[in-house]
Predict the 3D structure of the following.
Amino acid sequence: MEKKNTMRHALSVHLRGARMLGGVSPRFFPVLTFCAVADALTPYVTVFFSAHILKELALSRRADVLWQWIAAGVLCTALLAMLKSFLYQRKETLLDDLYGRKEIIFVRKMFSLDYADLDRQENRDLREQIRQNENWSSWGLMCIPPVYEIGLKGVTGILSGIALTVSLFTTPVPETAGRFVLLNSPVFLFVLAAVIVLVSLAAGVCSGKAISYWSSAAEEATLGNRLFGFFGFIGLKKGRGADIRMYDQQNLVSAYWDKNRAFGADGLLAKRARGPIGIFSGLGNGITVVTTGFVYVFTCLKAWAGAFDVGSVTQYVGAVTAMTGSIFELTYLFGYLRTNTGYLDTTFRLLDLPNAMYQGSLTTEKRSDRQYEVEFRNVSFRYPGAGTWALKNVSMKFQVGRRLAIVGENGSGKTTFIKLLCRLYDPQEGQILLNGIDIRKYDYRDYMDIFSVVFQDFQLISQPLGANVAGSASYDETRVRKALRDAGFGDRLETMPDGLNTQLYRDFTEDGVEISGGEAQKIAIARALYKNAPFIILDEPTAALDPIAEAEIYSKFNEISGDRTAIYISHRLSSCKFCDEIAVFHEGRIVQRGTHDELAADEGGKYHELWQAQAQYYTG
Ligand code: ADP
């Protein structure tokens, strides 16, 4: 913990974040650099030219030189203003773009995480927390651009200020000036340095305090954002309209708006802004004027004693005033940097989650005869954090090219069995083997290639139909059409306005087509067929259908599965009657195996009990 508070740690996490942002948007930081430098130089350019114009007016009074200074000043200021404005537009566009692009960093992480970690509630909460921190005040990765910009502007400003004030110390008061000769002592340089350091520290403490009051309201603001995210857009949510009307839910929404304290004028944040945040940032700003005061007195005394003219006084006072602003920005930056370090630590806690699942490098043999033999050997599995076994001592060997059914009541472990088969989780006990080798030894992507699963909660995406089926924007049209026809979507495809190019759903376009649950399911099945993997698995993707419709889909699917090894999962026994073998799951164990006729005849068995209980749905 100690280490986490050091400035070194703060700089290193910000640098790391900047590298990541630069990785997704290489042009952003170069543009931001030019923009910040141009912005920081502007006040010093003005001070420089004004001082020379005044000097010429007060001393030499040469008209031609005066015009030259004016022309050069106007030209430089105009060029700088144009450059600044141009760069500012570029910077803003790239910054907007960066807001979207930085999601790539999180998406890549979420996709590369082990499924078990992705599934873990604490990791999803962490992602949500990062999102909320960003929504609230751009804390985290998106705080890095302003931190960099402020820092660079501060440093450029100070360097420019020093360049314009060096002669304040090097130009001596004439020896004839009596006691004023004291001003030539180098001590004043040290006094100024000491004033700058002390003032910066004091201002830094004040700004740090103001920021900490702000960020300590994070919890309140996060809750406020969550509530706003839910209630603020409730009227726009598809599917809520009917309930809102039926149960007067608008009253609940109005109650929320009345009681919303997080961001309201009476809320904690508003109170703090009026109180300590305002006071401390005011103090921080005010204190820096001490430096300006010192320089005013020192400059005026030297000018009084005849060290330099009025033009130089303008230059020194102008430069130091601008420099004070830069110093204040830098002190403010330290508070900002330190606070954001905590938020970045949270961000990296997610981005540094290890991908803990062991992955081998064996490639699966590409076999045209589809002779892949999978075996579960005494497999037991418990979900992370769960007290009971979801699967206990399960052993099973799949017969290549055969139809296997897995049946059982809800919660008996059927889906878990498939998740282990697909290596979304690893079992704690026992082994799963592919052609006699532990599946952990295979390259994961390669292993996944042998399965096509239609999950219970399959998801299609708002993309054209053909791309959904193929999982890619370029695909073999003939094969996609065949897969859709085989899945029973052929007639519907004929009616689609743009055929395979028809956009599914209306998230992105008015022309999108809303499809029913049954149609979506056919598309999901077509997707599994198109993948053409040796194993095809249906995990109750038909939950919304009645038992008879489900049985029809399953037996049709059986016809189109061809020589693949097929696994069917259902809690409805009638759907799986046709299978070569049925395994009955109960409380995480396989309690019976056999054909439908064998199992139905065993009157003392679980299958018989379930069959009797469900018979009402499909007899008579
Ligand atoms: P089925 O597919 O037969 O309905 P599951 O395999 O989904 O059953 O569930 C088996 C057991 O594991 C159930 O007790 C369920 O509550 C539990 N379970 C399922 N998913 C999770 C999870 N992600 N975390 C913890 N427990 C889970």
